[in-house]
Write a structure and sequence with these properties.
The chain is mainly alpha-helical and 441 residues long. The protein has helices at 98-111, 139-157, 166-173, 178-184, 187-190, 194-203, 209-257, 264-279, 281-338, 346-354, 359-439; strands spanning 48-61, 67-79, 92-97. The protein is elongated.
């Protein structure tokens, strides 16, 4: 396996995966609906219905005691695995802020570094056509974010490993206490610093080619989807202009009908069709934003992929540092035992200047080095096992993600194409109706 470090005569045997090892699944686009392929028999979504049913603006005070306006989202859950459950029972409800969703995802990323953790919807609108509001308090944007937050919870609750985390259940069912439980796990202290991650990226000597390729793919996926969203926004701007200009047809035909006795009714009717056509673009482009949000999810998934790759780099870096330290200790033992110094060192120069160590001192140092070497070999074994565990479980989840991605993007692109075809058919119908109006004049 790439990235493995040998430990002299002690070979590290393969071992079973973690208890939370993900299983390969068939993905399905779940943005805004409940149709999803669920993993495993124990996933939370088989036991509980989850909805983010509405959003509400509130006024309160922030951490520095300044008044602020924020949005909260109503989470509804209903148990479905109880045989005596009343089908019409009232669901449990609680409100959560977007920042709470952020904290939950941060906890999951740190606690499950080997999993491609589903992303949250964007906090502020990006890649939008210029007539659409980018205000994060805009009702249309808040509604799309509500759908995105529900999609996030459904993805987490359908994941075989993430859905079994007790913090997830607390987040969904307990108004208070879940933050304290998450913080008690110590996840914030376990979070890797950016400097450490950057250091590992440049100093790993034997990186796993699969993770290098995956990291490169994540960069390319983000670049391609970003470009696609920019193109869509430009097309939407131009389409908006074309549709609105058709409103000029309506105005001109109406003015013309006022001076034509025999042609007046036909011109007036044609003008009405043009006005309806011009007004329809607002709803069309708003619907388009929902398809754009599905693409944006995978724009953010690209960062989730890179996060897994960075964690593997950190593990590989720690493994290589442990191997390097062990090699150094063994070399020191050999030099001390033979009295031969292979490389220049300050200690060697000091010995030459001030005399050799006594046999007792050398024996004590040899004993200490033997203990350090024993500890180092155990540490290296543990690091090897940890790295192998990580690769095994992470790659299983990456394969699951790939299947999910292929299904989701295929469905989203087909739906987008169908919407464009429908839009064009409506345009043809408008001009067909106008033709009939002109024919009756």
């Amino acid at each position: 396996m790439a990235g493995r470090v040998e430990v002299g005569e002690d070979e590290v045997a393969s071992q079973p995966g973690l208890e939370t090892e993900p299983k390969s699944e068939s993905g399905h686009n779940i943005s805004g609906n409940k149709s999803t392929i669920m993993e495993g028999e124990s996933c939370l979504l088989k036991k509980m219905e989850i909805n983010v049913s509405e959003a509400e603006k509130r006024t309160g005070k922030n951490a520095v005691n300044m008044q602020e306006i924020y949005t909260v989202y109503l989470i509804e859950t209903r148990q479905v695995d109880s045989p005596n459950e009343d089908e019409n029972s009232v669901p449990d409800t609680l409100w959560r802020r977007y920042s709470e969703f952020e904290l939950l995802r941060s906890y999951l990323v740190v606690t499950y570094p080997f999993i491609v953790v589903p992303p949250l919807p964007e906090k502020r609108a990006e890649f939008v056509w210029h007539k659409l509001s980018a205000d994060n308090m805009d009702p249309d944007f808040v509604e799309r974010r509500r759908i995105g937050l529900e999609n996030f919870l459904l993805r987490v609750a359908s994941h075989s490993a993430l859905s079994r985390d007790p913090i997830i259940y607390l987040f969904l069912t307990q108004e208070n206490g879940w933050k304290e439980a998450a913080n008690e796990s110590g996840f914030q202290a376990k979070a890797d610093s950016r400097l450490k991650a950057l250091n590992a990226t440049f100093r790993v000597k034997n990186p796993d080619k699969r993770f290098m390729e995956l990291k490169h793919y994540g960069d390319e996926l983000q670049s391609v989807i970003s470009h696609l969203l920019r193109v869509r926004a430009r097309v939407a701007d131009r389409l908006y202009g074309v549709y609105k200009v058709h409103g000029n047809y309506g105005r001109v035909f109406s003015e013309w009908s006022a001076i034509e006795k025999e042609m007046g009714d036909g011109l007036q009717s044609a003008g009405h069709h043009m006005d309806v056509y011009a007004a329809s673009i607002d709803d069309i482009l708003e619907e388009e934003e929902h398809y754009a949000d599905q693409l944006k999810e995978y724009l953010f998934f690209a960062e989730a992929l890179r996060s897994v790759c960075r964690k593997h780099e950190l593990q590989q870096y720690d493994l290589e540092m442990a191997a390097l330290d062990l090699t150094s200790k063994k070399q020191q033992r050999e030099e001390l035992a033979t009295g031969t110094v292979r490389t220049f060192s300050l200690k060697g120069m000091t010995s030459k200047l001030f005399g050799q160590e006594t046999p007792e001192q050398r024996e004590a140092k040899l004993k200490m080095l033997e203990e350090q070497i024993t500890d180092g070999e155990e540490l290296l074994k543990a690091k090897n096992l940890e790295c192998e565990d990580f690769v095994k479980v992470a790659w299983a989840d990456i394969e699951r993600f790939k299947e999910q991605k292929n299904n989701d993007l295929k469905e989203a692109l087909i739906s987008y194409a169908v919407m464009q075809i429908s839009m064009c058919k409506k345009g043809i119908q408008v001009w067909t109706n106008a033709k009939e109006c002109f024919s009756k004049m």
